[in-house]
Every structure is written in C-alpha cells, then in structure tokens.
Input
Amino acid sequence: MTLDPSDTRSSQPPTGGASPSPPTVPAIPEGAAVEDPPPVGPRYIWLMVLAQFGVFVAFITPIAISLAIRVEQLAPGNEEYLGYITGAGASVVMVFGPLLGVLSDRTRTRFGRRRPFMVAGLLLGVVSLIVMAQAPTVPLLGLGWILAQLGWGQVLGNLQFSTADRLPESQRGKVAGLIGFATQVAPVLGVAVAGGLSRNNLLLFLVPGVVGVVLVLLFVLLVHEDDSRARTFAEPLTPRTLLGKYLFDPRRYPDYSLAWLGRFLFYFGLTLNTTFTAFFFASRLGIGVQEVSGIIAVLALAGVVATTVGALGGGFLSDRLRRRRVFVSASGALFAAGAVTMAFAADLPLLIAGSLLSSVGIGGFAAVDQALLLDVLPERETDAGRFMAIIGFATSIPQAFAPLIAPLILAIGTGPGEDKNYLLLYTVAGLCTFLGGLVALRIRSVR
Output
C-alpha cells in the first residue's frame, strides 16, 4: 500500500497583520448530524497502528509479566502487592486523565495540540521504565508504575484523541480493527522478549521501551497536525470550569453514557482476568512464576490468529454492515466463555482453549467498541480530548479497583496454606464481560 504524501504537508503560519479569530464552535447535542472529516490516507493509518503497537509493547509488557517478576524478586509469596501497585497507578490516572485531556484540547502550538503531549509522555515513560527496573523496594516499584501510567498513558491517550480528530465514520471500524489487532499482538511480543530477558531487570523493561519510543517518534515526525495557535474557546479555563469538565450529564448524552458503562463492565472483567495471570498459570501448572513466562508467551502466540479474527473481522465487518452493537455484544460473550473455560481448566489444553476464546473476544471488543465510541462521542470538534479522557475512567476505574477486589475474591472459601480461589475469580470476570457486551444493545443512535 502506498503512502499518502498529503500527510506530510506543513502548516502555514499567519502572515501579515492580525488574522480574524475563527468563530467558536458550539456544543453539538448527541445524535445531531456532524460533518465527517475527510478520509485519511494510508500513511496516517499505518503510522497510527505502529505507534499504538509500540506503546503497548512498552506499556503492557510490565502488566503481563515484568511487574510480576519484580514483585516476586522483592517480596516473594506476596502476589497481592501486584494488585496494589496496578491499582495505585490506575487511581492516579483517574485523577489526572480529564485534566490532561482538557489541556490537550486547549493547547495552541505550531505543532498542533496532540504531538507536544506525546513527546512529553515519551520522556516520562522512559524514566518510569528505569525506575521500575532498578527499584530496590516495592513502594519504589509502585512509584515507577505510576510514572508509567502518566507517561505512556499520555502518549496513548493523545494518539486516540488524534483518531477522534481525524477519522470519518466510514474508516473507524477498519482503523480500530487494525489498531485492536496490533495492540493485542503487542503484549505477545513483549512477553516473548521478557521471557528471554527475565534475568536482567534493566533490559527486561528497556528493550520493550525502545520499541515504543521508536514507533511513536515515527508518528510524531511523519504525520502532519494542523497549527492550533488560532483556536479560540467559549470560556476561560478556571479551577471551577476545569472541575466541571470532569463530569457530564448522562441525560444529555445517553448513548455515550451506555458506551461508558459497557466498557467499564468489560474492562472490570478483563482486569480481574489478567492481573494475576502469571500466578494463575503457575498455580494450575505447578511451576514457579519465573518459569511461567515462556508458557504464557507460547499461549499468547497461539492467540494471535484468534485475535486477528476478532479485531480485523469485527472492525471491517462493522464498517461494511454498518452495525456495531451486535459485534460488541458477541465479543463480550466470547470473552466470558473463554474466562469460564480457563476457570475450570486443570491442564494446558483447556487453558489454551480458554485463551483462544478470550483472544477473539478481546480483539472484537477492542476494535468495534472503539469505533462505536467514536460514533457517539459528544462535542468532537471542541472537546474530543475531554470526552475521550472521561471514557478512560471506564478503563482506569476497573484497573484501580479490580486488583484490590481480586484478592478478596481469591480468598473466598480458602484457608491458611490453601490455593487461591481462581475458579471464582475467573467466573466473576466472565460474568462482567458478558454484561458489558449486553449494555451495547441498548444504544439507540448506532445500529
């Protein structure tokens, strides 16, 4: 596929005299007709896919395996610390996410609104990886993960804001499918790399980080973003108005609210399912946590084809058929089936079967739910970053609280010295994702 040279155009600064202020764009109610932006070229699509792939290699590898290895090194036998660390990082994102989204919307530079935040996030993200690799204590490991959430989270967030700015409806499913596939394959690569570097903490974190830095910089340097210095806003940003932007009226945006709820339920189940993956596999297979990284990598590789079917199939078909809800609902049900299969698995073949079903569900949900979100996103022209950040609560709240709740579920029905109750944990996870898919069926403005 050839690259579109139009994506390399440079912005022209104002010349000679004062340029008139553009009119302020009023808020557009949910469901009102909004003019679509023009289609993007292949350059934008492929560099966006690669950039998000890179962020996930750098950012998700710690969740998948690296943090578990470090927790085991620093506090053997205390896997609950992993839940506290991931929960603390997600809590910080909840506080700062909408603030950073609003600031991105209102940033005025010759380089645009989104790219400055991507560069700043990259710098902080690299620092976070070094802190996690070298941390001598669990609290410092937790601090490193908080920095990672703020840094890499800002890179990922502004890449997603860019899709809200640039993608027309006819391309949202396809692009979301490609991104969904790439961001699910990325942890596979990350875990495979981590499996070979598990005895060198610095390389364990920095090698995936280098992949992320290189691929994001390609997007920052090669994709044009309009000069934003001439933008104007209806109201000044004060502490009071800023706090107000953390909230929205569900009655005014009912479909956006349902999209938020469905994503919350799905990611609550997903977080319950994935936070303790390394410990779960070690328990079921009777091996150590460090030894399990290679097995998880093999299982993840087996899910690549399933993820491709879910992400690309769901994304492309949802555009072609102009239907989102049925694909989101089916994805939630498939993930639930995979989680329950894993819950009852006592050997490797059943673990593989459950993993494959879950991979189809994750891929389909990640792609089609993202396209559905862009379809119902309110006030896209003025507040895309704000509403994309608020939808981020639907991911960050589960990431904050599910790891704290999971140890309580794991302890139900067990006594001192007994195995954790992974059966109940994975069953609850499946129920949450199933309900998350059902919520999408109540959305009315999207088929």
